[in-house]
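A.,

Following up on our hallway conversation. Structure tokens first:
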């Protein structure tokens, strides 16, 4: 490929450094109206957009999430800190999971921890998840670089003018296979969660 390994690593690190999440302490201490919610989410997650004109969340999306029981309804048209935490989970899940799968996954979270007083709050759960995910950045970066190097070593016998495309294609296929396998595992776990206990 035309990008050398060091440039690719720097590109990956730059991309990963743009992965952002909303820290609970950044959420205002007051409940927000819909326009304030969309503005807040846009301001805090805009670095994760693929295209500048993409929308993080729209009013229609939020209304649909509430209508489909992914998000508890607002109270007097206002959204709490917990609503914003749930919207953040939904934002990340919606790119890889169906609405039904997200319902199965978030239903128990809402039922047991949304606006509940218990040993764990929704904020505690959210913080733990974000902590676990941040710890995955270094291993994921190393895995991507390893796959990149494998792709660079492929198609050495192909015609020179086709090598660049074929190596990039191999790299994309390896990354896609990784996502495919993990998505299969996620769906199996969700299916197990959805099955009634005997």
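Then the amino acids I'd put at each of the 198 positions:
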């Amino acid at each position: 490929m035309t990008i050398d390994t060091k440039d690719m690593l720097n590109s990956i690190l730059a991309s990963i450094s743009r992965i952002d999440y909303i820290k609970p302490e950044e959420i205002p201490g007051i409940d927000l109206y819909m326009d304030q919610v969309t503005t807040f989410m846009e301001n805090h997650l805009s670095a994760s957009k693929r295209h500048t004109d993409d929308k993080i969340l729209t009013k229609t999306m939020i209304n649909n999430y509430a209508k489909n029981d992914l998000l508890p309804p607002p109270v007097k048209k206002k959204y709490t800190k917990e609503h914003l935490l749930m919207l953040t989970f939904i934002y990340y899940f919606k790119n890889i999971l169906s609405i039904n799968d997200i319902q199965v996954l978030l239903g128990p979270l809402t039922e047991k921890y949304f606006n509940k007083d218990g040993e764990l709050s929704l904020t505690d759960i959210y913080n733990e998840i974000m902590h676990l995910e941040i710890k995955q950045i270094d291993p994921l970066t190393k895995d991507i670089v390893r796959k990149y190097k494998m792709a660079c070593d492929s198609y050495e016998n192909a015609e020179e003018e086709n090598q660049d495309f074929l190596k990039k294609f191999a790299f994309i296929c390896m990354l896609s296979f990784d996502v495919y396998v993990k998505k299969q595992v996620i769906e199996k776990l969700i299916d197990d969660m959805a099955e009634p206990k005997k």
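DSSP finds eight helices and two strands in the chain. Curious whether your intuition agrees with the design.

B.
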